[in-house]
Amino acid sequence: MSESNDATPEEHGDDVVESDVAATPEQAPEAEVEAQDEAAEQVEAEAGGLDEPTVDAAEPTEAAAEPESEPEPELLHGAPVTWSRGQAVLHPDRDGYMDLVRSLREQGWWTCVDLCGVDYLGYAGTRELPPGTEPERFEVVVSLLNHAERSRLRLRVQVPEDDPTLPTLFTLHPGVENPEREVYDMFGISFTDHPDPSRILMPDEWEGHPLRKDDAVGRIPVQFKGVSSAR
Predict the structure, then answer these.
(1) Cβ(183)–Cβ(201) under 8 Å?
(2) Residue ranges of domains in the chain
(3) 136 closest CA partner among 118, 159, 117
(4) Which architecture does CATH list for 75-192?
(5) Which residue in 3, 135, 167, 186 is a FRET match for 67, CA 20 to 30 A apart?
(6) What is the pLDDT confidence band of residue 45, given thresholds at 50, 70 and 90?
(7) 3-state secondary structure (DSSP) of residue 134
(8) What global pTM score does this model have?
């Protein structure tokens, strides 16, 4: 009996060992599948982690791509204004030029002190123009005086080179008749509806406009007659 009892545990033990060994191959595919699933989940997590910085990095790029809006100009009497040594300078366009001068006259700007032209050809300095006002080669500058308020106001109108024309102020300020003729004579800027659009300084047959920056240097021959050198 003792031999039988001794053998039984060994045989039973062998069966147990064999049972354990036999179970391992059956469980191996499940372990591999679980390992593959875990690896796939880890790859997805890493991929998801890489996507977040990409989105964050794209946001500043989109924000930087948005164009900056141009600042709105300061307005005075309905026109863009800049300031020069404490004096207001209005910058109307050609279409609103006459309406602005008419409105200012109704407000007390009765006197036109001066009207002149400027040629900015080749000028590399700062023009001091308000936002939205495009610089042109020519400018017409008008100075107005308000006696009641004891103040001055300046207007600067941009005049393009390919169409150097501007409405006349003669109907509002008759005193500009000769200054506008001088601007035409020297700069070639015409004033529509002017009562006498002719030269005032140069001879009628003169070609060109002497104060234009690209005008050729000219001269008028002077002949001295009847001059005696005897003393």
Answers:
(1) no
(2) 1-63, 75-192
(3) 159
(4) 2-Layer Sandwich (3.30)
(5) 135
(6) low
(7) coil
(8) 0.67
